[in-house]
Description:
Blueprint (H helix, E strand, L loop, with lengths): L2 H9 L11 E5 L2 E7 L2 H10 L4 E2 L6 E7 L10 E2 L11 E5 L3 E6 L5 E5 L3 E5 L5 H17 L4 E3 L2 E5 L2 E7 L5 H8 L5 E5 L3 E6 L2 E6 L5 E2 L1 H5 L10 H8 L3 H6 L4 E2 L2 H5 L7 E10 L10 E5 L5 H7 L23 H7 L5 E5 L4 H12 L4
Parallel strand pairs: 2-4, 4-9, 12-18, 18-20
Antiparallel strand pairs: 1-2, 1-3, 5-6, 6-7, 7-8, 8-9, 10-14, 11-12, 11-13, 14-15, 15-18, 16-17, 19-20
Helix pairs in contact: 4-11
Protein name: HprK-related kinase B
Keywords: Kinase, Transferase
InterPro entries: HprK-rel_B, P-loop_NTPase
Amino acid sequence: MNLEFADLAKKLGAQEQLVNNTLLLEIDNCVIQVKSNSDKLLTKLTEYFGHVVCTQGQADLTILAIEKPAVDLALPFKDWQREAGKTGRKDSYYDLAEARIVHKVKTGMCFMQSETVKLASGPCIKNDNQVINFINSQYLNWLQQQGWQNCHAAALERNGQGIAMAGFSGGGKSTLMLHLMELSGARFTSNDRLLVKSQGQQTIAKGIPKLPRVNPGTVVNNPRLKSMFSEQKIAELQSMPLAELWDLEEKYDVFVEQAYGPNRICHTTPLKAFIVLNWHRDNTDRMQISQIDLTQRRDLLAAVMKSSGPFYQYNDGSFYQDSTELNEEAYLQALHNVPIYEASGQVDFAALVDYCDSNLLPVE
């Protein structure tokens, strides 16, 4: 550990006194240990990750989450280039020889990523969602280092078979997934990140333990979720013009087992179908769904692929760059066993749910 690395780690709280409690998470066959100087933070994380909390196991990954005021490291941070369609500053970063520091512009949170230290530092309790994302990013790294491809997709499982759904920004993949959760036997797999890998004659999909995050429009149009808001807020939202409600950028966590009941989560499933939502709310044509050849429709592949982001560290210790081009062939190979469908025309969740129920995930 060189002097700059050690100094930055110390400033971020790597040597802080930790509480006795630790949090153990078991996701598939990966065990993640979270240590902190804050019992309150660990309690919040335990509540969030409740369905994957375990009581014993040898940790594959250890993460430090240090609650403290935001630290000004006075580093020449460089802005991380955002994906097409995204605006505003979000992440900045600084690379050392063996580590990367990621700074969250809006919150002041800082994260140190290296092969030996994985550290979240700053007002963690106030920004627990960023700590949750950092924890999930370590599981994403663990899988990607084993050859899994990172998809920008939601997914669920029914009767031992999975269905994934991707879409361009605002396409409604999370809303569709929650509508599909109303089907008997359906179990949540993932809301926004899905890892896929071809194994033999099938493709396996793995979700991360991140709860669905939905916009207000999804909540007010889903009877099961309306209890998340007060009657007054529901009335206010329903009085808004539809286009304004659709574009409202607020996010709320849906605690799946509270909303849908126990045993409604399954993070690993063989993938039977993949739907790309290429519909639009301004389109008046009837919704159509058709099977496509993704090798001939690489315009739709763009909706499936997802950047590994600033936290991704390769097996050799080097870091992913924002200029790195996504490997289309790797995605096509991972999905070559899976029928791909395009939904086009107008947005019609009910019709697409009926199609999935009857044709893609029928009851045994």
